[in-house]
Amino acid sequence: MNSKVLVAPSPHVHGGDSIQKNMYGVVFAMLPALVFSFVYFGMGAIIVTLTAVASCYLFEFLISKYLLKKVPTLNDGSALITGILLAFNVPANLPIWIILIGALVAIGIGKMTFGGLGNNVFNPALVGRVFLLISFPVQMTSWPKPLGFNTAYLDAETGATPLAIIKEGLKKGEPLSQLMHDIPSNMDLFMGNMGGSMGEIAGVALLLGLLYMLFKKIISWHIPLTILGTVAIFSGILHMANPEAYAGPLFHILTGGLLLGAIFMATDYVTSPMSHKGMIIYGIGIGLLTVIIRVFGAYPEGVSFAILIMNAFVPLINVYVKPKRFGEKRK
Amino acid sequence: MLKTFSLGGIHPAGNKLSASSAIQVLPIPEIVSIPISQHIGAPATPVVKKNDEVKVGQLIAKSSGFVSANIHSSVSGTVFKVDDIMDSSGFRRTAIIIKVDGDEWLETIDRSETLVTEISASKEEIIAKIAEAGIVGLGGATFPAHVKLSVPPGKTAEVLIINAVECEPYLTSDHRVMLEKGDEVLVGTQILMKALGVNKAIIGIENNKPDAIAHLTKLAVNYQGIEICPLKTQYPQGGEKQLISATIKREIPSGALPIEVGAVVQNVGSAFAVYEAVQKNKPLFERIATITGKSLKNPSNWRFRIGTPVKDLIDAAGGLPEDTGKIIGGGPMMGKALTTVEVPLTKGSSGLLLLPREEALRKESKPCIRCGKCVSACPMGLEPFLLMVLADKKEYERLENNAVMDCMECGSCSFTCPANRPLLDYIRMGKGKVGQIMRSRK
Ligand code: SF4
Ligand code: SF4
């Protein structure tokens, strides 16, 4: 008799999913947006991406090896995601030294202080982005114009984002219908022909990524669709109440970092809730906060803050919002 | 949209390698070892002793309580001894070992193949017959069938649900029974309906068996009150709670039995056994099982005498493949790994799966990435990642509050986890401990 047969409890087979498959699946889903950013911003986008990714890997390696004294696990793909997301969240003409600081904060403070992948509370790339936004407001908000592939990097021509144009204009008391003339058409917004962070501009590319991730079951629809739905409804109500003071739902969805945030940032496994009910609460929270910050807050854009604020509630949501149990006694 | 259950679920590869292989009859071995505990409940009490002559179908161990089952000889010959042997549980337990001589059946058994559709037995007679024949849940649960048919006072059965889902990958014995014994299954279903006093039965079949659905649907027009219900293929639809949710959209409350929502579930193989017991006077001493595996020469379905060694079944299908890494009694999701091929096949043996070594090896477990996929997969709406952590930390009170006892041990969580965490191993451990604590409280 073959003495080598294994005896272990059920289940005896595994579905074959792995951390790597999911992580590289996310990276694959980000490729369309990456390509669009290269096309629109040229050389700058490439330099920013390479710097962000390389420095995230480097810091993860150094911190786990020398500070945490653990064997660095770089092949899980999570540093790659953080790197690309960090690049996606900054202008394509950001100087290298600022990117390095952003990566150090993202990996060092956002991820490793909590004990590495699986333990962090906040989305690392967003921690990096918000830190940079507060520390280097000028560099972080001078957006190069999407001029098609060019070789300009630091000296690229800059322009404002649609959200900033509206915010500034409304402050000066100009009516929305007037301001809308300065905004690219919805089609241009959808195709990414506007000022903004590297990865947030091309709605079409981000949506392609979403479809891919849903199809591959890397994420479920709950978080992205709840965020987008909440933003659409909330901004729609405001718009109907006063069309001259509040922009409509489509504008809110297509501009700024909303699609990027809803699809790639808020869906980060580690920092989002585990149950579908929890995901929906989290998504509604992000949607509401985004619109509130955009419309009533000091910053023109609010997605990053909204996600970070809701990240902070995730541990609470996980404890108090239980999935629907089968056969639960109904009240 | 096809019906299915309400929460969670996974889609493992079907691997129904033996689906087109007709049921064959496994040769009677020279010696059989028939365990006295092949069911949930108290072990039966042996009523034969060394050197007794027995015939096929003769009672050799008597049910020892309400939740227990009779055991009959599957062969004719001489009792060699009553002794402890290693059975499929991996423990040494009592079995009746019989040396085979010929194949002489009790005269009372009708061995003809003629279909008897007329049900002459009364409700009480049927239940008594089923108990006498030692029929248990043949899907693998092995719960004595007559117990489920005895509806407790204050409750009423409204519908009988026949579990023909066979949601475990690889297994095909129920599928073959439906194709080859369709009429017998339907008569068996009507007998069970009569026993319960219901006029409606639903046979739930997953749509990965379109031929069985078509065949039974065609036959069912001749039988009153039987509805064939095709279901969307999804594991673990064969779980009682899931099957009831899928077929009649009712949710059994936590901790309750199907009768709470007016349903009684019986396996399709049991329906066939009921037919044989009531119409043919034949106790349960043989059944049908699948022997399968990707490296096996001849994945197939066999009718075998209970007590036949596992080894005989493997040999009949072409012998143990070189690369075998695990021998599983049952399916890959809920089956049990066997330590040796010398153990006997029993009433609960729905199949035998030989898993190649590289598939049997578990991958290294990584830290949880909090993806929530185990939560989405759990058909009971639990949080497997949390239950594992709590079991590991021995936080039994929190385990109980997080409904660990609702876990049906389907393995969907471990199957799904991208970090290869052994979720169910820990949850099972925690469940055992919480169960102990709950019992000691009473
Ligand atoms: S084994 Fe238990 S915890 Fe895991 S999915 Fe099945 S019911 Fe849920
Ligand atoms: S599936 Fe695995 S990795 Fe994902 S949350 Fe559950 S235990 Fe953690």
Automatic annotation (TrEMBL), chain A:
Family from the record: Belongs to the NqrB/RnfD family.
Protein name (Swiss-Prot/TrEMBL): Ion-translocating oxidoreductase complex subunit D
Membrane-crossing segments per the record: 26-59, 94-114, 121-140, 194-214, 221-240, 246-267, 279-297, 303-321
UniProt function note: Part of a membrane-bound complex that couples electron transfer with translocation of ions across the membrane.
EC number, UniProt record: 7.-.-.-
Listed GO CC annotations: plasma membrane
Membrane topology according to the record: Multi-pass membrane protein
Lineage of the organism: Bacteria, Pseudomonadati, Bacteroidota, Bacteroidia, Marinilabiliales
Known cofactor(s): FMN
Record keywords, A-Z: Cell membrane, Electron transport, Flavoprotein, FMN, Membrane, Phosphoprotein, Translocase, Transmembrane, Transmembrane helix, Transport, Ubiquinone
Cellular compartments annotated: Cell membrane
EC class of the enzyme, as a word: translocase
Keyword Repressor: no
Entry-annotated residues carrying FMN phosphoryl threonine: 161
Highest taxon listed in the record's lineage: Bacteria
Main location: membrane
Gene Ontology biological process terms from the UniProt entry: electron transport chain; transmembrane transport
PANTHER family in the cross-refs: ELECTRON TRANSPORT COMPLEX PROTEIN RNFD, ION-TRANSLOCATING OXIDOREDUCTASE COMPLEX SUBUNIT D
Keyword Hydrolase in annotation: no
Native organism: Labilibaculum filiforme
SUBUNIT field: The complex is composed of six subunits: RnfA, RnfB, RnfC, RnfD, RnfE and RnfG.
UniProtKB/TrEMBL annotation, chain B:
GO biological processes: electron transport chain
Residues annotated as binding [4Fe-4S] cluster 1: 368, 371, 374, 417
HAMAP family: RsxC_RnfC (MF_00461)
Function: Part of a membrane-bound complex that couples electron transfer with translocation of ions across the membrane.
InterPro entries in the cross-refs: 4Fe4S_Fe-S-bd, 4Fe4S_Fe_S_CS, Ion_transpt_RnfC/RsxC, Nuo51_FMN-bd, Nuo51_FMN-bd_sf, RnfC_N, Soluble_ligand-bd
Species per Swiss-Prot/TrEMBL record: Labilibaculum filiforme
Subcellular localization, as worded in the UniProt entry: Cell membrane
Primary location group: membrane
Principal EC category: translocase
Keyword Magnesium set for record: no
GO cellular component: plasma membrane
Protein's name in the database: Ion-translocating oxidoreductase complex subunit C
Enzyme Commission number(s) of this protein: 7.-.-.-
Family: Belongs to the 4Fe4S bacterial-type ferredoxin family. RnfC subfamily.
